[in-house]
Design goal:
18% strand, alpha/beta, 7-stranded mixed β-sheet, Rossmann fold
Length: 382
């Protein structure tokens, strides 16, 4: 199939999908698109596997993209004898995602990695056009029944498990003798969009983790309505801190920086998301208030996926859901966590983690949960 006809066919398929009710999020502006950077200095010799990572948005988000970049750098450093890597920022203009994926598919890349629901539909339409290419998509699944996606491996994360541990930490922190804790058993959650199952999954896990420690704890819940509106996220967090919360868990992508700013201004605690956000603020005033982060191991799982591919063990054509048992999610354990959070609280978190791994405690998920049940969980904690 020629490049021209591949593009024509893909455009037709995506247009048809649009008119049959496929959802699309509003476009949000970000830095200019198309910036390309490479990790590593591997020379192509015709035998190495070329792996290309395409990210929506840009690097420097202190979250998903930075984690993915770290994973690719690890690939470049530790698998340099077998792999050549490339990383491409696509920006936030969603109209350009299709073209970027087609360009990568038509290039000499062997494995192409994309992430999140923004790329789900585009990948579903593109992958069958390039059966000789391999694709990996993280933080979402694809519809394997809709077409031949035998060359696609999809994975997502049990963020509800990491959020459960964040809830245990927050509930143990509030009313403790930690410097910025108060006497009220009140904590907060600031999420991106209330329509996103991935965000609500974190909300459900966080609330259940907090109630695991204190059934009567109050959890303030707010939604930004965006992944990039850091000003709105900050406003919501400031309101929660002013309302008695002394520890807020944020799950709002790049907008999370607003909550971190609010924590520093209010001199209260915050738990970050996706990557170890305290490291991104190392040396700054904000860092001392970020007591941990609920991590999704995007970089870790990208690296392990490439390792598995090289070994011939990556199950293309299937979807995997990865959690604590696979070391794909968890809480950041850094010097701030060790120095600011007491040993007693850290032990409580470890005990909760052990209970989850042993199957003694289970966490509900927002995926497949009806709206009434979700609202009931949230309202019961207010």
């Amino acid at each position: 199939m020629t490049k021209k006809w591949a593009r024509v066919l893909l455009t037709s398929l995506l247009t048809a999908a649009l008119f049959t009710g496929c959802s699309s999020a509003p476009a949000e502006s970000k830095p200019e698109e198309g910036t390309q950077t490479e990790a590593g200095t591997n020379e192509t010799n015709g035998e190495k596997v070329k792996v290309s990572l395409l990210v929506t948005g840009s690097f420097g988000d202190k979250a998903f993209n930075d984690s993915a970049q770290t994973g690719m750098k690890q690939v470049a450093e530790q698998l340099s004898d077998k792999v050549e890597v490339e990383m491409i920022e696509m920006g936030n203009d969603k109209t350009k995602f299709e073209g970027s994926l087609l360009d990568a598919s038509e290039s000499d890349s062997d494995i192409i990695i994309v992430g999140t629901w923004d790329m789900k539909e585009i990948l579903e339409q593109t992958a069958p056009l390039f059966p000789d290419k391999k694709y990996i998509i993280f933080d979402t699944d694809v519809d394997y029944a809709a077409s031949d996606l035998s060359n696609v491996y999809s994975m997502s994360y049990k963020q509800n498990e990491a959020a459960f541990l964040a809830g245990v930490l927050a509930a143990s922190t509030t009313t403790s003798d930690m410097t910025y804790a108060n006497e009220e058993a009140t904590i907060g959650f600031v999420g991106a969009k209330d329509t996103a199952a991935v965000i609500n999954d974190s909300a459900v896990g966080f609330i259940q983790g907090a109630q695991f420690i204190n059934p009567d704890i109050k959890v303030l819940v707010s939604y930004v309505g965006s992944y990039v509106d850091s000003a709105k996220a900050k406003e919501l967090a400031l309101t929660q801190y002013a309302s008695g919360a002394d520890c807020v868990f944020v799950a709002a992508g790049p907008a999370s920086v607003g909550v971190i700013e609010a924590a520093a201004e209010s001199k209260k605690y915050v738990i970050g998301v996706d990557s170890d956000q305290a490291l991104a603020y190392e040396g700054s005033e904000e860092a001392e208030f970020i007591i941990s982060s609920a991590i999704k191991g995007v970089g870790t799982t990208i690296f392990s996926s490439i390792e598995r591919d090289l070994e011939g063990n990556l199950p293309y054509g299937t979807y995997e859901l990865l959690g604590l048992a696979e070391n794909a999610v968890g809480l950041a354990d850094n010097s701030i966590y060790q120095s600011v959070v007491s040993e007693e609280i850290r032990t409580t978190v470890e005990d909760a983690k052990a209970s989850l791994l042993a199957g003694e405690v289970s966490v509900d998920t927002a995926y497949g949960m009806d709206e009434a049940t979700l609202k009931g969980i949230i309202s019961s904690a207010q």
